[in-house]
Amino acid sequence: MATSYRVSGGGTISRRGFLALAGAATAAGWPAIARAQAREVKVGYILPMTGPLAFEAQISLNGVQLAVDEINGAGGVKSLGGAKLTLLPGDTQNKVELGNSEAARLIDQGIVALIGPFSSLVAYSVRQVTEKNKTPFLLLAAVADNLTEGGLRYVFRMQPNGKAMSTLTVNNMLEMARAAAVPVKRVAMMHEDGNFGTTMGNHVEGFAKASGFEMVQRIPYNLKSPDFTAELSKIKAARPDLLVISGYYGDSKIIAETAAKLRIGVHALVGLANAAYSNPRFIADNRELTDQLFDGNYWHNPQSARAKAVFDAYQKRFSQVMSSHSVQAYQVVHVLRDALERAASTDRDRVRDALAKTNLADHILPQDAIRFDDSGENANASPALLQVQNGRPLVVGPARFAETKPVFPVPKWKG
Amino acid sequence: MTWGLLLQAVISGLLLGGVYGLVASGLTLIFGVLRIINFAHGAIMMLAMYASYWLHALGGVDPYLSILLTAPLFFVLGVGVQRVVIEPNRRAAEHNQLLLTLGLALFLENLALVLWQGDFRTVRSAISGTSFMLGDALVEGARLVACAGAVVVCVGLFAWLRLTDAGKALRALAEEPEGAALMGIDVTRIRGVAFGMGAACVAVAGALVTPFFYVAPDVGESFNIMAFVVVVLGGMGNFLGALLGGFVIGLAESLGATLLPGSLKYLVVFLLFVLVLLLRPEGIFGGARGR
Amino acid sequence: MAARAVGLVALAALVALPPLLPKYFLEVLISVLFYAYLGESWNVLGGYAGQFSFGHAAFFGIGAYTSTLLFLRLAVSPWIGMVAGGLLAAGFGLFAGSLSFRYGLRGPYFSLVTLAFAEMLRVVAVNTKAVGSSLGLSIAPRSAPALFLFDGKLPYYYVILAMALGAVLLTRAIERSKLGYALHAVRENEDAAEAAGVDTLAMKLRAMAISSFLTALGGTFYAQYYGYIDPSLTFGPAVSIQGLLQAIVGGAGTVLGPFVGSFVLTPISELSRAALRGRAGADVMLYGLILVLVISFLPHGLVGWFRRR
C-alpha cells in the first residue's frame, strides 16, 4: 500500500501535474497505479445518525468534520506528503446489525481507522469486526467499561470510561464539599435504565463505601417515561445531600424541572455524563432552571488557547456553541492524525502501533498527555466538573483546570 | 412509605392519566369505526407537537392557543391520510392494516427527522414554571392545565358523539357497520371523519403537553404504547372508557413508581393490561368486543 | 420443474458463493438469512395459523438468554443451550398461548397481549441483576466450534443458512401435514373449523410451540454471532417487528414468503441507506413508504402476487 507520490524514477511533481497524471493513468486503464498514488487517507465513522440518538450523533459528527477540515486545510498529513483525510460515513441507526454491516462496508472501502459508534450496545459487536480485520477502532461516547476487555488490540478509547467518569466526578464533588466545609453523607441517584445509566449507577453505588457516603436512594427509570414526580418524591423523602442524575436530554430536562418545583432540598443537583446539563442549547433554553447545575462530563480544557480557537471555529461554522460530544469527536480525529504522522503510513497495523504509542500533549482536554494503556484506554482520561453560571457551563474542578469558583451548596436547591 | 408519597403518586397519576385518556380517546375512536389499531397515532401526535412548537417559535403563538389552528389542521390531515392510505386498504387483512399504520409511523417519524433533525426542542408557556403544593404534594400548573384540558375535550367529544348528526352516524357505524350503510349513512365519509377526529385529539394532546415536555422526532413513543394499553383497558371503541382507563393507567404507573424498586412501574402497567385482556377483554368499562 | 431448477441454482449459489464475497456482502447476507429465519419461525404461527403475534421477541429473548446464561454461568455449550432455550421458549409459548387462546383472544387482542408479554419480560430483565440487567451479557470472541464460536464470519453464515433452510423444509412439511390443513381451516374461519370437528385450540397451541421453539434458536444464533445481548436488543419490539415484516412482505402463510421478503427488504434498506447517506432519516422514511406501498398494492405479499398472476 504505497502512498508516496514520487513518480518512479523522478522527483516530486506538482500537485496539478500529479492530478493530471493520475487522471491520465486512470483513463489509460491503470487504476492500480492511480490508487497507489492517491493523496487521501480514508477514515470511516459510524454513528446513530437516525433514530433516538440522532441529535447527539449530529453533534459528534460536527466535531469530526471540523477536525477533518482543519487538518486538510492545514496541509493534510505531513508525513504522508500532505495526504488529505477523506471521511466515509456510516449510519448505525443505533442497531447492532447495521453497526456490523456498516463497519464491514467501510473496511471493504479501505479505511485506515474507524470512529464511533456512540452507543455501547453497537460497540460490543463492531469491535469484533474491527479486531478481526485489524482496523483501529476509536471509540466515541460509548462508556461501558468492559468494551476494552478481552485482550483486544485495535480498540482505543480516548474519553474517560464509565468508571473514570463516575468515580472522578463524585471525587471532584466530595473534594469541593470538603473545601466548602459542607458534609456530603447521603447521596441519591437517578439514572436511565439502559447500559449507560446502569453503568454509572453501579459505579457510584460501588464507590459509596470507600468515600464515606451512603447511597440513600437509587432509582433507574425508563427514558420514555413522561413523568418522574413519584420517583423524585421518593428521593426527597430520603433527604439526600446530593442528587446525581445520569440521563439523556429529554428525561434529564423533565427531572430537573420537577426537582426544582418539588423543592427537592439537596446541596446540589449533579449530572453525571448527563446529555443535557452542560449542553449549551439546553442551558440557553432553560436559563433559570439550569443556573448553578453541576455536571461531571467529558469536556475541554478552558485554559487552553487552542480550545478557544476551536470553539470559535465551531461557532462560526455551525452557529451553535460547541458541546462535549463534539469536543471528544474533534479530539479523537486529532489523535488519529497524530498517529498517522508518526506512522507515516496508511498501513492499518502501523497506524495501530502508532496509536498505541500515542503521547499527545498538544490537545484540548482537561488532562495530562493522551496516552493509551495496554487495554487501549486513555491512561490520563479525566472528566471535568462543570457548573452552569450566568448561562455558561464553567469548569470548577479539578482545581488546576478550573476557570471559576463553584457555588456550593446551591441555595435554590436547598428549598 | 408515608401518606405524603401516596398522595403525590395519586395526584401525579391522575394528572398524567388525563393526557393518556385524551390520546387514547383518539385511538379508540379510530378503532371503533375503522377497526384498526393505529400504530401511527404517536407519530401524528409528534407532528402536532412540532406544529405547536413552530407556531410558538416563528409566530409567538402560545402553545395553548395553537390548538385553535392545529386541531382543525390535523383533522383535515387525518381525513386526508385516511382517504389516501387507509381507505384503499379497507378490505385488507387485519394484520396488513396494522402494518400499514406501522409503515406510516416509520415514514412520519423519519420525515420529522429529515425536516428538523434530532434536536430536542422546548416550548415555554407563561405557566410552564408555575406550581403549587397541595398538602405535601406537588401540582404543576402545566400538567394541571393539560389534564383539565384533556377532560374538557373528552367530554366535548362525548357530547358531540351523542348530540350531532355526524357523531350519531359515527356511533352507528361503530356499532353496526352493515346497518349503518343500509340507513343511508355515507360510510366512507364517516370513516374519514373518525380518523380526522382521532388526529385532532392528539393534536390537542400534543399542544397540551408541549409546555412541560419536549419535542423530538420520537417523542410520540412516550404516549403510543400507553395509549394502546388504555384503549384495551377502557374497552376498544369505548370513548368514556378511554378517559377513565387513562386515569387508571396513570395511577398504576405512578403508584408503581412509588411502591416498587427500580423501573418496574411498567411491569404493573403491562400486568394490569394482560389481566384485563384475559379476564375482561371488553374492557373494565365495556366496549365493542373485537371479533 | 423450472421452479425446482431455479431453486437448485439459487441454493448452489448460496452455498458456493459466500467465500468469494467481500466482507460487507457477507455481513449483509448473514442479516438477510437471519431475518428470513426469524420470518419463517414467525410464519408458522402468524402466517399459517393466522395468529398475528406482535411479541415474538419474548421467545427470541428467552432463547438468547437461556443459552448465554448456561454458557457463561455453567459452561454449557450453546449448542446444547440452544435446545434448552428452544424448549423453555416453547413452554412459555404454550403458557402464553393457552392463556390467550382459552380466553378467546383473537385478532388485535392477541397481537396486543403478545406484545405485552414481551414487554414484561424486557422490564423484568432490565431490573434483574442475576441476568445482567441493562449491562447485558457479552461473549468474548474466540475460536471454539464446539462452543458455537467461530473465527471469522463464514462459519456463522453456513450455520444460519442451515437453520433457514431447515425452517423452510419444516414449514413445507407442516404445510403438507394434517396440522397444516387444520391450521389452514383455523385461519380461514375458526368457528367453521371448530364446527367441523377440528380441535382449534390444540392446533393453535401446536403452531405456537413450533414457532416459539424456532424463534428461540434464532436468539441463540444472535447471541453467539454478535457476542452481546441486552434486554432491549432481545426482548424489544423491534425484534418482533423484524420477523413479521419479512413474512408479510414476502407472503404470510407461504413456505418461501419470509425468505423472499428478507431477500427483498434487506437489500432495499441497504440500498436506500447508500443512496440517501448524509440525510439522517431519509432512508428509514423511504423504507416506511415502501412498506405502505407493498401492503397497498401487494396485499398477499410478493409470493402471493406472483402466484396470482
Provide the residue-averaged pLDDT of chain A. 88
Which architecture name of chain B does CATH use? Orthogonal Bundle
Strands in their spatial order, largest beta sheet of chain A? 7-6-8-9-10-11-12
Q: Characterize the quaternary organization of these chains.
A: heterotrimer
- Coarse morphology of chain A: globular
Radius of gyration of chain A, in Å, reads: 23 Å
Q: Which strand order does the major sheet of chain B show?
A: 1-2
CATH architecture of the largest domain in chain A: 3-Layer(aba) Sandwich
Q: What is the CATH topology of chain B? A: ABC transporter involved in vitamin B12 uptake, BtuC
Tally of domains of chain B? 1
Number of helices of chain B: 11
- The end-to-end span of chain B amounts to 44 Å
Topology:
The complex is a heterotrimer of chains A (415), B (291) and C (309).
Chain A: H1 15-27, H2 31-37, E1 40-47, H3 54-73, E2 84-91, H4 96-108, E3 113-117, H5 120-132, E4 137-140, E5 155-157, H6 162-179, E6 186-192, H7 195-211, E7 214-221, H8 229-237, E8 242-246, H9 249-262, E9 268-272, H10 280-285, H11 287-290, E10 294-297, H12 305-318, H13 324-343, H14 348-356, E11 384-389, E12 392-397, H15 411-414
Parallel strand pairs in A: 1-2, 1-3, 3-4, 4-5, 6-7, 6-8, 8-9, 9-10
Antiparallel strand pairs in A: 10-11, 11-12
Chain B: H1 3-34, H2 41-59, H3 63-86, H4 94-116, E1 131-134, E2 137-140, H5 141-163, H6 165-175, H7 177-182, H8 187-209, H9 221-234, H10 239-259, H11 265-279
Chain C: H1 2-16, H2 23-48, H3 57-74, H4 78-102, H5 107-126, E1 137-138, H6 154-175, H7 178-188, H8 190-195, H9 200-226, E2 228-229, H10 231-235, H11 237-250, H12 257-275, H13 282-297, H14 301-308
Antiparallel strand pairs in C: 1-2
Helix pairs in contact in C: 2-6, 2-9, 2-11, 2-12, 3-4, 3-5, 3-9, 4-9, 6-9, 7-9, 11-12, 11-14, 12-13
Key features of this structure:
heterotrimer, A: 415 residues, alpha/beta, Rossmann fold, 2 domains, 7-stranded mixed sheet, 12 strands, disordered N terminus, B: 291 residues, mainly alpha, ABC transporter involved in vitamin B12 uptake, BtuC, two-stranded antiparallel ribbon
Task: Tell me about this structure.
The complex is a heterotrimer of chains A (415), B (291) and C (309). By secondary structure, chain A is α/β, with parallel strands linked by helices. Chain A has 2 domains: 40-160 and 305-356, Response regulator (Rossmann fold); 163-302 and 384-414, 3-Layer(aba) Sandwich (Rossmann fold). Helix content of chain A is 44%, strand content 17%. The longest helix of chain B has 32 residues, at 3-34. Chain B has helices spanning 3-34, 41-59, 63-86, 94-116, 141-163, 165-175, 177-182, 187-209, 221-234, 239-259, 265-279, and strands spanning 131-134, 137-140. Chain B has 291 residues and is mainly α. Chain B has a two-stranded antiparallel sheet with strand order 1-2. Chain C has a single domain, classed as ABC transporter involved in vitamin B12 uptake, BtuC (Orthogonal Bundle). Chain C has 309 residues and is mainly α. Chain C has a two-stranded antiparallel sheet. At the B-C interface, α4, α9 and α11 of B face α5, α11 and α13 of C.
